[in-house]
Task: structure prediction
Amino acid sequence: MANLNDYIFFKENKYVILRIVWSCIYIIFIVLTIGLVLSLWQEFLTNPTVTTLESTYLPVNKIPYPGIAICNMNKISKKKATVFAKHVAQFTKLDVVEIVNKTQMLGKLYDFSYNKEDKPTISMLQNIVEKLQLNIITVMKMLTLQCEDLLLNCRWKGVDVNCSNIFKLRLTYDGYCCTFNYAKKTLHFHEGEMEDFPITGEAGIDKGLSVTINNEIEDYMYAPLYSQGVTIQIFIPTDYPDKPSGSLTEIRQCLFDEERPTKFNGVYSQSDCNVDCRIASTLALCQCIPFMIPLSTTDSVCTLNNLACLHQYRNKWNFLYPEQDDLGLLQREQHDSLRCSQTCYPSCDATLYDVVSERAIIHKHKSRNHTVVHIYYYNRFSNLYKHDVVYYWFEILSNFGGTFGLIIGLSLISIVECLLFMLQYLLNLKILS
Result:
């Protein structure tokens, strides 16, 4: 409909057959145009973003080195528990050995295990903690083997360094761990206590991070896993290390860093969004926040009194309910998984680390119950992917305008002509009346 000649053609009384045929053609073209426009819009909603390989030669020294968390499987050190028991014994009538045995119950705040038979002991221990006005977060940190005891030798970029200078004892989902290059600011760890992280690394085993770990097997007191040694987490340095939600991959929309704030008040990530969701759930169900999440305070942290509730819902907080379940096949699992009130989209700008592990035997005569770990970039170059929207608003407008113009000849000037004609027609009716 490029101009008003079509209207004049329709208005004339001649060529009735042609007018009918022309009307049918117009209707068919209009329906076709609407169908194409709706198809384009639906495609945009289904796949709003596109990922393309921009380069295969991005130097790794331009990529932030990953955050490293070395977590002792022994969550309560026997030596630390003894020191804690001696302090408590000064204010109670219990002896040190009895307090040490009861202190083991604090380990249940890691895995939320609970038995009704332990309720009297748990209640007694919680009363002691409250009577001495101790903070659960502080107590759990006191009972953890410190980094200077867990890590013996450290080497970074080929230079021997003091482990205490590069590793900090910080909270992760596995509790207190020795972290390296962990750049997130949290409630218990502020900017003044950190270096200018995240840092970058270089390729090669001699340019990476090497750590000698002291496995004090005789110091084990509480290990949630039936194993010995340490777990090593590789994560994005600006993310909170959260295993249940930190490695999800879904085909959907994404959010840029500043588009949605999280309780961490830092760079947005899907992991942090899921942590917010878990916090909301634990507050609603148990009225507290587990101490492993570095957002709990003295008033909100979960204590031994909340252990029964935490045990009841612990599986729910370890599984996320998928956003797309069109067939309704997971209705039963919906009650036993975490479902967020808002969709936690992946971050549009993120670094993903592909971890490959190798192992070798350390001869006993060379090392006494020690483990040596090397973490380094294997290749000098990495792939750079560009994640962008499929269409910007002006591209969508251009596609729609091209479709309307190609099939029915509709343009912005045609719309203006129609509006002017309608205005003129209404004015003529008003004059005639």
